[in-house]
Write a structure and sequence with these properties.
The complex is a heterodimer. Chain A is of the alpha+beta class. Helices cover about 35% and strands about 10% of the residues of chain A. In chain A, helix 2 (about 40-45) packs across helix 3 and helix 2 packs antiparallel against helix 4 (about 80-90). The longest helix of chain A has 27 residues, at about 5-30. By secondary structure, chain B is mainly α. Helices cover about 75% and strands about 0% of the residues of chain B. In chain B, helix 3 crosses helix 4, helix 3 packs antiparallel against helix 8 (about 130-155) and helix 4 (about 70-95) crosses helix 5 (about 95-100). The chains are: A alpha+beta, B mainly alpha.
Amino acid sequence: MDINAILFPVLVLGCMGVVFGAVLGFASIIFKVEQDPKVPLVRECLPGANCGGCGFAGCDALAEAIAKGDAPVNACPVGGAAVSEKVAAVMGVEAGSAEKMTAFVKCQGDCNKAKTKFEYYGSDNCAFEATVNGGRKTCNYGCLGDGNCVAACAFDAIHIVDGIAVVDKEKCVACGACIKACPKSLIELVPYAKKVRVTCNSLDPAAAAMKACDTACIGCGKCSRACPVEAIEMIATKSVPPAKLAKIDYGKCVGCGKCVSECPKGAIVKYN
Amino acid sequence: MDLFVTLMAAIFVNNFIFSKFLGICPFLGVSKKVETAAGMGVAVIFVIALASAATWLVYNFVLVPLNLAYLYNIAFILIIASLVQFVEMFIKKSSPSLYQALGVYLPLITTNCAVLGVTVTNMESNFGFIKSLVNGVGAAVGFALAIILFAGVRERLEKCPIPKPFQGFPITLITAGLMSIAFLGFSGML
């Protein structure tokens, strides 16, 4: 047997391997992407949950943005002040104060207060139920309580209580995962420190809203007139007559609670 | 016309996933969301087009003249793996946005059997350079089509009340089988 029959292929393939290896080696030098040495340092300070609450693709992406200066050092809503201080130390700037936020479900139409228009036997999935004539609740804006937000929360901070989702504000890190999961766009981020909140999202006209739920905002505007600092605005739909919904400007709200006592439907609540 | 027939045959009739059962791993792994499935599909088109060209050149200008054509398997794997690595580095430098879109999928394709399958098919059918390229792109478009369709089905499956024993991969595999039967309908076309 001719030994060359083995040696030659081995040699050829070996040469190919060496050539490709050399090309890759040179390419790795030529195409080297300079990485800011601060990026891994910043990345180490971040929680690493990759929740996307900051609006970037993950902690790595945020670290890169912070190092580049595209994002503030307190951009991570999950880590809060502790993390932003560490990041600020790496970046050599002052941390500044990020206002602590919490997710909030704008609905209190639980099993006792909200009416239903049909019995629903489908799968336990809000997005799915919402496709069936808006879900079983008479109010088309309320919480369906199938818990898509519960499943989305990585921090065990949101639970279904009496058929509606309730946020545990101590556990909530304001990552925003539940906001994306909710097919009714019912959840929003509110400042943790502001206790007075409109707990209704209904843009039904007053009569319909009143029929659908015991605690619906009927858009009467009493709260808006009672507010000493003009922090409550009535959002109106374009329909005729317009349906209205109270909305609190948390920048102005002083938390006096006058609107709470003024609201005839109990749709504005002061939380502790 | 001949090229058009080759392209259509590669996309529908000889669909890599549904009639040749190659590339099943990314097909099942990266098909949970339409968005990621589309990213994977585009990355596969990109890599297979390049791999078809590169392997054709090496096969016809290196392996055949040296009487080493029987080494095609090992040589193709070597070429594809190096090529993918090189492309990854190249786009990381030249186009960060493209890297963000394709980057995470590229390493997954490095040793994908669909890529190797296309190049071996090209070689065994004695296709010319252009025809190899067309066949490769067609096969990759077929792959992308299959994975995007499948991801669409899986997104809806997620929301269905599926009996416990079928949840997860069982129902996924059954779905894949049904889609494969559907693609069987194309087999008499060309």
